[in-house]
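Allow me, if you will, to draw on your knowledge of protein folds for a short while. I am sending you one protein, given as its amino acid sequence and as whole-number tokens for its backbone shapes. Kindly check, if you would, that the fold set down in the tokens agrees with what the sequence suggests. The record follows directly beneath this note:
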Amino acid sequence: MRTRITELLEIEYPILMGGMAWAGTPKLAAAVSEAGALGIIGSGAMKPEDLRKAIDEIRKLTNRPFGVNVILVSPWADELVRVCLEEKVPVVTFGAGNPAKYIRELKENGIKVIPVVASDSLAKLVERQGADAVIAEGMESGGHIGEVTTMVLVNKVARSVQIPVIAAGGIADGRGMAAAFALGAEGIQMGTRFVASVESEVHPVYKEKILKASIRDTVVTGAKLGHPARVIRTPFANKIQELEVENPMQAEELLVGSLRRAVQEGDVERGSFMAGQCVGLIDDIKPVKQIVEDVMREFKETIERLKKYVE
């Protein structure tokens, strides 16, 4: 399959792995790249030296293109970008802000720049600044979210920019991919679906939570604190929602380290199990390669099925 995204990133399939802090390990990212998609290391919780080690590790596992996601609210954002420059990372995606000050230097060094956007205005802004593509991520996604649904956001962003658009948020299969392409996307990004894979290194409890959850089993925490995030409903998530109103400072304190506790320890008492609403579409743990192949097969089947309506 060829789209502007596959040509830009030199990959077989227009599928990106979400840049997930703690969960986006070199092992998982390498498996995604080996499957013909684009694996992305999630540097959100990393210090510069940690990222350099992660890049070295993924290069030992694959010689295919990969990316690094940089969260702009990280206290080490400048240093993380510097590591990407020094290591000549093929692709850098950005989240949680406007990466304007980094785009020119990254591109001058041959690095593809793809910001995550939650609005058409930010998409147009980063396009003017030289971004190669944008990831339009709707509020159905796991982790930190915006306020617009994937269906509306992708549709609007695709109409607003000339650069390629990658759809994200609630996509876990070929039907979701076909819907995204119908809205004008030329690629998709999946996070939760890859967390529920054989190669994912999250705690088994995390994977079990994803498999057992329905499409109504995610909630948004942190909204009243200014940093909303979609997580699987647990007593801890319910407690955070209550404390946001009653004791915001305590809520902030409890959230610190909660994602790491979920990913590494499977801590159901103090962990935030970030996941998108697509959890209700995931009912098995598969190897990454099979996930990618299944998505592409179902995408093609969906397109063929839709043709009968226009013949």
In short: The chain has a mean pLDDT of 94.
